[in-house]
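tool=predict chain=A
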Amino acid sequence: MRAALLAIVFIFLLAFFAITLVTIQTEGLTVLTVLSIVIIALMAIGIFGALASGADRDE
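tool=predict ok
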């Protein structure tokens, strides 16, 4: 289950990053595109960190 969720999140973030790169290619590097890259990186670090460490529950 965790591996499938990681794959879905990876594809989701990769799509956002690809859209950002296309925007940089067409309109150039702007403050908003840099902000977009920072937000994508923060989301990736948080999500992958939480899913990779995982809480071992005794349920």
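The chain has two helices and no strands. The radius of gyration is 15 Å.
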